Amino acid sequence: MKKLNLLTSLVIVMTLVFAGCDKNYRENNGSNQNGTNSLQTGKNNTDNGSKTDPKKPMAIPAPVVLGLSGNYVILSKSGISTTGVTSITGNRGVSPIAATAITGFGLVLDPTRQFSRSPLVTGKIYAATYAAPTPANLTTAIHNMEAAYTDAAGRAPGATELGAGNIGGMTLAPGVYKWSTSVIIPTDVTLSGNSSAVWIFQISGGLTIAGAQAVILTGGAQAKNIFWQVAGIATLGTTSDFNGVILSKTAIVMQTGATISGKALAQTAVTLDANNVK
Questions:
Q1: Which residues lie across from 179 on neighbouring strands?
Q2: Phi then psi dihedrals of residue 196, to 5 deg
Q3: Rounded CA gap, 60 and 72, in Å?
Q4: Of residues 51, 227, 69, the one with CA closest to residue 139
Q5: CA of 214: how far to CAs of 82, 238, 273, in Å?
Q6: Between 20 and 30 A from 223 (CA), which of 36, 39, 82, 241?
Q7: Cross-strand pairs, 229
């Protein structure tokens, strides 16, 4: 009888031990109602029209190399115009168009004839018709700008069609994002990453940020590491606050009071209206 009672007690103890182990396993590994391990489903819990979860870590790309085009805050192949009181910090250049395609700045040609100055610009203004070595430098800068556009467009994306082209209100991690459409920013968008983080946005259509909205940088993110490759027109709405390097195959249009921290590099024209470019 004592042996029977001892055996019964042992069975009970072993049953309780196995039950506790099974409970701990399920609590630590997760399960759904169908008994499937929820950590292995691979499902995307973010539904914003994207084929990829924008919060999922992506491989951080290398920066796009700008070459000599990086020496300019504004570079254009067909002209730069402004109305109103615009403020530009940095160099500007046009090529292969002549200096006559730079309007609204009150250019004053330097005695060297290699560049001009303007009361609206803290920096130098270059044109293909100025004295050597300016024409050759600008030709190289334009080639570098076009190469940078091609480089940015050719990077492998980590996320595609995010938000169906509407990224307003999102917080985006570093990486490469691609759209086959235009992209709109109707409300603030935040780019969160450290000082070495890189973003590349590949946009097959145009890019528009609405008036009074902003591209916000957090965590130490830097405008020089953000590249907007835009096939269509890039439009910065009235009093918007934009960050990054715009590589536009078409035009860049800054509406009244818009600000950009970065660069406006266009394969056609750049149009300004009482803007701040820095």
A1: 203
A2: -105, 0
A3: 26
A4: 69
A5: 22, 11, 18
A6: 82
A7: 202, 247
pLDDT at 55: 53
* Cβ pair 173, 202 in contact under 8 A: no
CB atoms under 10 Å from CB of 256, counted, come to 14
* Tokens linked to 197: 């983080």
Closest CA to 68 of 8, 151, 137, 167: 137
CB 258 within 8 A of CB 240: yes
249-269 pLDDT tens trace: 999 999 999 999 999 999 999
> Could you give the CA distance from residue 120 to residue 35 in angstroms, rounded to a whole number?
68
Give me the percent of the chain exceeding a pLDDT of 70. Answer: 79
Tokens of 198: 């890189």
Taking only the tens place, the pLDDT of each residue in 79-88 is 999 999 999 9
Cβ neighbours of residue 105 under 8 Å, at least 6 residues apart?
80, 82, 118, 120, 121, 125
Work out the percent of the chain whose per-residue pLDDT is above 90.
78
